[in-house]
Amino acid sequence: MIHNVYILKKTGESLLHSYYGSIEVDESLITGFLSAISSFAEEIGAESVESLIMKNMKFVYALDTSTQDPIIFAVCVDREEDSKKIEFILRKIKNKFMEAHRTDIEEYTGDLSVFKVFYKELDDIVWQYVLEKYGKTFQELIINKKRRIDEVVTSIHRLFSPKIAARLIDHILEAVYQ
Asked: What pTM was computed for the model?
């Protein structure tokens, strides 16, 4: 599951953060940490960080150096997530964000509101991932009568942020009752 997406300047300043899963952590604490790890990797000659793996989660990184101030893109996911799939999604986020906001980054004045329009695009990218990975599974639990609807709804609310949970529940119920 994708729990969080972070887009930040290499200095640690958060440009955008969105929460999708069950792991919610103080944004300023995490962005400072992600930035410090990236700087540490450079300092020891490792060029950049690709991922940081912990016991139950991992952070997958992408760095964009096409602007004067490099931008770090990172996602927090469950440890067992397919790294290639997550890297693909992260590249998609990075490419779309840079395409939409390269000028805003180059002319950055500290006004974060210019990046807020990207939330919809980001939500749509993560939604496609959630739908592909979980949509059929939850539908089949209901259709095959392995779980009651209320049990599935409770599970979804435990696993996902409110905005993803509501969207997934609507999608599943629509598919089940068609």
From this structure: 0.89
Distance, CA of 11 to chain centre: 20
Domain count of the fold of the chain:
2
Structure tokens at 129: 């991932």
| Distance from C-alpha of 26 to C-alpha of 76, rounded to nearest angstrom | 13
Domain enclosing residue 136, as ranges: 129-176
Residues 74 and 142 in one domain: no
Task: Tell me the torsion sign for CA atoms 167, 144, 129, 159.
Answer: positive
> CB-hemisphere CA count at 13 Å for 37?
20
pLDDT digits (tens, 9 = 90+) for 98-150: 999 999 999 999 999 999 999 999 999 999 999 998 888 888 887 778 778 88
Per-residue pLDDT reduced to its tens digit, 14-49: 999 999 987 777 788 888 888 898 888 888 887 778
Q: Does 124 map to a domain?
A: no
* Residue 78 DSSP SS3: strand
